[in-house]
Amino acid sequence: MLEEYLTPAEVAKILKVSLNTAIRRFENVTGVIDLGNPEKMHKRRYRTLRIPRSVLNRFIANNRVA
Fold first, then answer.
1. Residue 55 is inside which H or E element, if any?
2. How many CB atoms lie within 10 A of CB 42?
3. pTM of this prediction?
4. Which of 4, 10, 17, 31 could form a disulfide with 55 if both were Cys (CB 3.0 to 4.6 A apart)?
5. For residues 1 and 30, what is the distance between their CA atoms, to the nearest angstrom?
6. Are the C-beta atoms of residues 55 and 3 closer than 8 Å to each other?
C-alpha cells in the first residue's frame, strides 16, 4: 500500500499550529523527506518537506497529553 505524504501546511492545520512550528517539529524526524537545497553563503535554505502520515500519527501518539 502506498504511503500518504503531507505538506507542512497540511500538518500545521491538523495539529492547529503555525506553519513554522510544523516545520521545526518535523525537520529532523526520521522518515520525513526533505527535498530542499542546502544553505549556501549569502543564500537562505530552500526547504520542501513531505511528512508521511505514519510519522504524523506516531508524533501525535507520543505527544498526547493525558
1. helix 53-62
2. 5
3. 0.80
4. 31
5. 20
6. no
Residues 28, 48: Cα–Cα separation, whole Å: 13
Distance (Å, rounded) from C-alpha 53 to C-alpha 10? Answer: 11
In the structure, what pLDDT confidence band is assigned to residue 64 with cuts at 50, 70 and 90?
confident
Tell me which residue has cell 500545521.
Answer: 12
Cell of 22: 510544523
The CA distance from 4 to 7, in Å, is 10
Cell numbers representing residue 11 in the block: 500538518
Which amino acid type is present at position 65?
V
The model's pLDDT over 6-26, given as tens digits with 9 standing for 90+, comes to 999 999 999 999 999 999 999
